[in-house]
Amino acid sequence: NTREHHTDGYNIKNLVVRRGQPFRVLVSLNRDLRAADKLSLRFSIGENPMKNRGSLLSLKPEREDFNGWKISVVKKDGKECLLSVTSSPNAPVGKYNLHVKTATNIYKPENGVIYLLFNPWCEDDVVYMANEAQKKEYVLNDTGYIYVGSAYNIYDRPWNFGQFEEFVLDACMYLLDKSKLSLTERKDPANVSRAMSALVNANDDNGVLLGSWSGNYIGGTSPMDWIGSVTILQKYYKTKKPVRYGQCWVFAGVLNTVMRCLGVPSRCVSTFDSAHDTEENLRVDIYLNEKGEKLNISFDSVWNFHVWNDVWMKRTDLPDGFNGWQAIDSTPQEQSQGRFQCGPCPVKAVREGDVYLPYDSKFVYAEVNADRVYWLVKKVNGKDKYFKIATETQDIGKNISTKAVGQNRREDITWEYKYPEGSKEERMSMQRAYSFIRPSGLVPRSGYASTIQTLGGNTQPLIPKEPVTKTGLSLKITNTEPLHPGNPLEMAITVKISAPGNWTVDLTGSCQLQYYTGKVQANLGTTKETINLEGPSEMQIPLKIAPDAYMKTLSSVEDEVLILVTAIAEVKETKDKLTQETSMRFEYPPITVQMPETAKLYNDFPCAFIFKNKLNVTLENCKLLVEGLGIFKMTTFEQGDIMPGRIMKSEIICTPTRLGEKKIVAKLISNQMKGISTEKAITITE
Asked: Active site annotated at which positions (predicted)?
């Protein structure tokens, strides 16, 4: 049965089948079956199964159909009877007990619990997916990548989803029971995925993962230290207590595992420069001081990246046209209907601006479409006053990414979430969205905004226009040398003017360290210059930060930090103002993996990890984390300190227990370096 149902991967003794598809049951009797004999299979689900509630199904071969379930006799052979059972394609998913009933007797088989899952291979199931390669990726692939970093440099984090590993299916079934969904609600993947988005975070229901962005993870595992979902779900299933700690990519990795495990096609989706817009007014306010440094005073934030999930289904609860991918998010950001849950929100509704559709489409729309407004905070007579310096309308929701089907590369799916910037469709979609979301007038709304200066007051026009400067002023921020920890950070701000004439430009530049959530961790340095440009021309202004300015902060936080450079330029003659910001990540030497390309089932093979510290600093408290599904259980190796120029070599012995292409994933972490990952594939044959 399991091979036909694509469930042969599950590491469990019980039968796992998908709904709407036949499976066979062989019943052995103490004598030949006679015409008058009564024989039925009973499937029951839940605490108190009853026929009238649909939680107890009694299937008799002569009465073929019951509640959409079918049963038939394949063949009778003396004392043996082979039956075929097809569950309803919209049966509730979960654990069913199978009993065999004869006239006088009920037989309870030893492994009588059957796990029934959603079925993307069945045309009548709402999760049906026609494309075979997509099903292989979005349902059956137990490894993948989660894309992180910044829009300036995106990188992949290998992640082991491990939906077939021991206890993972049981953990998902435990979550289904914990969700308190009724049997009717369990039929629909929209309800199930919404419930799972709530249960993967611990916020209001003792769910799987406790989120923390504190930078201090004593008493738990730092979010950077996970390389997959398996350890998290196994630990949760064993203790029934939230596992510490998660951040967005961990929540998305675990939710992806849960949805694939239950049979719903699912993918991790990363959005760069994602708005966390807490008032649904489609605007995020950024406050800068006079040195051009970003201040931590805003209620909204722009995350360098944010990761959520898309799940695939027909939305029977919505008008036509909103089937396909639906966004769900288990990172606890905002409450929805009183719980920390988000989605499913049709991706097509985000693209079309239909933000009234359930669930949480306004929130998801804002994450990829908000405007970024920059305010300068100046002291005037000892009080803070706010001056608006720029509005960015095309900055939020860039490079929306997921792993490509069947390939180890990033696929850009921005087009699924939004029409091209500036296109006619985009304008219409935005008008639609704005008609459901009332953007408030342009006034700053931080907690410090009691001293508001209304900056020449009309509210935002319906279609925000890109600010066009009179001089064609533009700014670009780049790094001129690789950003290696322990070296000076060498960056440059390029100021460009396209209008002819003599122009004087005041430039302010600042460099800070920030978390991916946009929270500033340290100010590293600023520059202020006045330059003269003969237009059209450009000039590069260097910005250099010494290692002493940042190494202490870098070593003391447990999260990965990004380098944030902000520039403000003002043309004196025309009062043109412009701001630009770019986040960059530190660059690290690679880890290499040495192992054979193929190995035989149950035959040991060696695998070595080699790392040379090419940096100018000692890497303290190094840990190597290794996991290979079906090859090697998650293990941490303490490596001590690695001095500059030194080589670390670690060898493990792997025993493959499953056939096919398997991957080993490794990650190296130290005080100065928050996780460089690598992976290598090996083919296991018989």
From this structure: 248, 306, 329
